[in-house]
Amino acid sequence: MKYFIISLFTAFLFSCASPRILDVATAPDANFSNYKTFAFYEVTAYGDTISDRFNERMAYLKKEIAQEMEQRRFTLVDKNPDLFVNIGVAVKLEVQTRETTWPQDGMMRYMGQRNYKWKSEEIEVGLYRRGAITLHVVDAVKNHMLWTATLKGSLPDDSTKLKSFADKGIQTLFTKFPVQ
């Protein structure tokens, strides 16, 4: 039983620590041997929650994606690419809660007129950020999507670890790319 609990805890720890691939799709008619060059669609951001370091962080992603594409013998160009890569990023602040229990939080609350009451409720214990990145690889001439993949995970609190986390995530995502 002891080993079962330890292995269960280890599995839970690793499942939370790394990003996971949610969705991968390749067009049935996709033949990547016909393509030699790629470029990025222009990334636009809007909303009042955009970070001051957004452009810097997008540069991390573009650099890592470019490395993965170049390892697969595609060349990054400025004009007239064969493929376009579209990057979609969504980040959401999540609230971590726990439920109060009688043994831990069993304080009675006085409600007036000799009326004491206890109830189980959710209380906030922390905040964390969840993020998702979606890549679309598109035929530039036909404007037809050839490949798409989505990766989701909890972002590290330490911003110095964000770059290595993004690099690991992009590498994980490209393990599902049709061209190895």
Explain how this protein is built.
The protein is built from 4 helices and 8 strands; from the N terminus they run H-E-E-H-E-E-H-E-E-E-E-H. Helix 2 (54-71) links the parallel strand 2 (37-40) and strand 3. It has helices spanning 2-17, 54-71, 102-105, 162-173; strands at 20-26, 37-40, 75-76, 83-99, 109-110, 116-117, 122-139, 144-154. With 180 residues, the protein is an alpha/beta fold. Mean pLDDT is 79; it is low at 1-16. Strands 1-8-7-4-2-3 form a 6-stranded mixed sheet. The protein has a two-stranded antiparallel ribbon with strand order 5-6. It has one domain (19-100, 114-176): Double Stranded RNA Binding Domain (2-Layer Sandwich). The longest helix is centred in the middle third of the chain and has 18 residues, at 54-71.
Uncertain stretches: 1-16
By DSSP (H or I, 4+ residues per run), the number of helices equals 4
Report helical residue fraction: 25-40%
* Gyration radius, rounded: 23 Å
User: What pattern of helices and strands is seen along the backbone?
Assistant: HEEHEEHEEEEH
How far the N terminus sits from the C terminus, by CA atoms, comes to 42 Å
Query: What is the total number of structural domains?
Result: 1
> What would you call the shape?
elongated
